Amino acid sequence: MSEKKLGIIGGGQLGSMLSQAAKKLNIKTIVYTDDKDAPAQNFCDEFIVADYKEKNKILEFVSKVDIITFEFENIPFETLNEMSKLKKVLPKPSVNRLIQHRLAEKDFINKLNIRTTRYVSIEKKSDLNTLEDLLPGILKTTTMGYDGKGQYPIKKIEDLELLNIDFSKGYILEKLVKLKKEISVIVTRFGINNFEIYEPIENTHQEQILKHSKIPAEISQKILHQSKDWAMLIAEELKYIGTLCVEFFIDRNDNLYVNEIAPRVHNSGHLTINAYNVSQFENHIRAVCSLDQISLKKISNAEMINLIGNQILPYRQDFKLKTNQFFFDYKKKEIKNKRKMGHVTTLI
Ligand code: ADP
Ligand code: MG
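# adenosine-5'-diphosphate complex -> structure
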């Protein structure tokens, strides 16, 4: 039997880790990215660099693969849709279209009777004048945001004057939740009501960028069950195939809210590489390539620290890792402020 070839759109650390997981399963990977320096070139079998809208290159990529998946959500919908006419794209492009747009995403979640933060669509500056009860809040671009990019905390309407925001883009205003904790739940859906689900992961952010993740999350039984149930319901309703992550807020009264859905593997799940028998990456590959499903077993509790910007440097110079520590260098060409450069997982 010939080897399966998996096309991965996006060449960042998630694409790298998907490629590594695929290799373990004897699946060849072809990464398509618009970044010639993308780190996944160090891990995949073949690497194509072109704009996400370049027809010829898209066709070349599609002709080389059996199945297509992606490592980030902000791929032009048309590109995914065109690809899906020729080869299977999983998760399906309509999932991506929904989640690319914060407003559509939140409306969808609320329709499932799942709580989100309170929010309202903002199309022009004057829309904000009547929204005192959503303040303090966060103004977020409806599309293309990640790692806190495109977000503006607003305490009072006057703050807007200083911010100089480009209202030709769409925004939502979200009420600020008084956070006790943030958690995420990662689930891989293989088919109708068929899941492998990881336990909730507790996350800490610095400057809106994930800094630290750990299992077990210190949460009540109520939150444990509700977060897993909601994550599975969302995956089921999306008819999702592959690994998906739901980010949650917990407020000071122990109420759970969905913050956002990531239709892909997720940074908070890096610890699953060492803490479980099957990682979120391997599960994603197994689901999208229709391979055998293996029951998840936790091997150990764990914590993960993201190495952001210069924080990678001491680890690159012969840092003495303990036997329960695992260091990952994403091999990004350039160190940048606020750029995720690597991570360390410690089994505890
Ligand atoms: P991104 O797409 O950049 O990940 P998020 O909406 O997840 O954007 O926001 C990033 C982080 O900012 C969250 O994980 C949380 O720490 C903080 N944050 C965002 N929205 C809110 C909110 N409404 N209330 C409280 N904290 C928030
Ligand atoms: Mg987020």
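# post-check
The first strand starts at residue 5 and ends at 9.
The first helix runs from residue 13 to 24.
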